[in-house]
Amino acid sequence: MLKMLWDTTSLTQEAFDDYILAPIQRYAELVQQLPASESHHHSYAGGMLDHALEMACYGLKLRQRHLLPPGAKPEDQSSSGELWSAAIIYAALMHDVAKTLVDIEIHLEDGKTWRLWHGPIPAPYRVRYRPGRDYNLHAALNPMLCQQVLGPHVLDWLLSQPRLFGLLTYTISGHTDRGGIIAEIVHQADRASVSKAMGGDPLQALAAPVESLQRKLADGLRYMVKEQFQLNQKGGVAWLTDEALWLVSPRAVNELKAYLYDQGVKSIPSDLTRLYGELQAHGLIEEVAEGKSVWKCQVSDGDWAYSLNMIKISPTLIWGTGDKPEPFKGKVVTLGYDEVGDSNPEPQSSDQEIGASVEHEAKKAAGESTSVQVNKDSPVTDVPDSSGSIASGGSLDDDLLSIFSDLSPGIDGQANGEDVESKTVVDDMKRRATEVATSNISSDDLAPGSGGSSNLGGVGEQFWDWLKQGVSDRSIVVNDTKAVVHTVDGTFFLVSPGVFKKFAAAESGVSSEWKQVQSGFQKLGRHIKSQGVNIHKVSVSGPNKTTYLMGYLIKEPEELARPVPPDNWVLKLTSAEG
Fold first, then answer.
1. Where exactly are the structural domains of the chain?
2. How high does pLDDT run on average in the chain?
3. Where in the sequence does UniProt note compositional bias of the Polar residues kind (predicted)?
4. Claim: this prediction has a pTM higher than 0.90
5. Which residues pair with 307 in a beta bridge?
6. The 104-108 sheet, strands edge to edge
7. In this structure, are residues 62 and 400 in contact, taking their beta carbons and an 8 Å threshold?
8. Sign of CA dihedral 107, 108, 110, 112
9. Residue 448: exposure state from Cβ atoms within 10 A (0-12, 13-18, ≥19)
10. Side-chain half-sphere exposure of 159, counting CA atoms within 13 A
11. Interval 251-262: pLDDT, tens
């Protein structure tokens, strides 16, 4: 990776050694074999150094898309461009470095605690993550270690460009809203590195170990419970008692699945029943009866009580003995197991909607044509194929383009993506077809203009409410790698079919129902049509090739969120597609 940094800059050997290699060496001496996280990405010995260097490499490749400083004269860009490139490397080194101060306790072999503001670790050591740590505190303290890592000569060089010095400082101290283009590039590079690590790709200039599905599921559960789920709160997802951790089903499992998909983990079953089976087979959840994983429970506290379907987890899977939170002060009483089945979708879709989905899947399996409002020459899939990960053998340019979800190089990419899910879709179709066959739904129920059509409007409103809430609370990320929502030309751009699959998977556990969600959304009329066409094409231009996203433009972006975020600098609106 050092060679890649050398190849991507235009510094002389002496300048590279003094201003790039020396800070990296000081950083390596400081972090040594420390991990980048406890149970998330790069959580192995040496993971922090690997993560920083990988970010620097991705950041410099992303930087090539920009003329820096922004808006400067060509002669100024030529004279100071290398400093801006170096600043991206510095930001990659510094963006998480204070985790070594506030997240980790370093204990030397003689029992003393070492803190890195005293310098590199001087003796053999062991590491312990602090219980109850503040996950945002490190950003505020990152600049504290700039003197040790970057050194006075680098800081002098940076201050020769006060604007750049400010952007870098804002970026590494957590004020990314004021970090400008530096913050954008570093954030994209961070996401790319995390996605690669979570995807378990065997390509390792980074030497990250390939982890089992069991490890990925366990790490994902720890992350979601510790950092995402509300614990012991009315309306929350998780309830901790003295004997067990209870998670609301299927909501918690759907959110776990969505999170792992976002991190590039492609081995997670899309079918919810199979995912319950994997969790149970690996001993991550406890069964209530033979083949049953979902418990019926009553949660009560004082004058309120809820009946909920839950999965049961051992608290030791999530917490050590020292950092376990206080248990729920109310009661969780088990009432048996869920008779419906482990898939147990929440009542979001009506029988007519389920029937419509099965009818569509049956046509697809029988080889009948179905109508899709996407140009056949520029297909888009939501299932990453072998070209959609950061894989060995490809150029880093290809790697960078592949970190955007729903990009497709052509028909072959779509075919490969469909192969990934073909078995689970067929299995799910068979199961759901059996359910619908016993529900006495006539074909008239599914005809346009009948109850089935009105139900589409209902699911469209559900989708819109979910989208507004997700953008508001940032559970749906905007303008990011793997994001299904971006901003282009001053409005929101919804990636299709990714955003509809994400909603379907989160609400019912079956992402293959996305077409109903899409139809329901179109009926709302909240999107921009161009000469009667619904779908718009957005280009993502790399140094060597251009790929595309397809999706919807929102007519009134302020109705979705205020303020509307700035346009994604990577994307450009090109045309509408039939």
1. 2-198, 213-337, 351-577
2. 74
3. 368-378
4. no
5. 298
6. 113-114, 104-108, 125-129
7. yes
8. negative
9. exposed
10. 7
11. 899 889 888 887
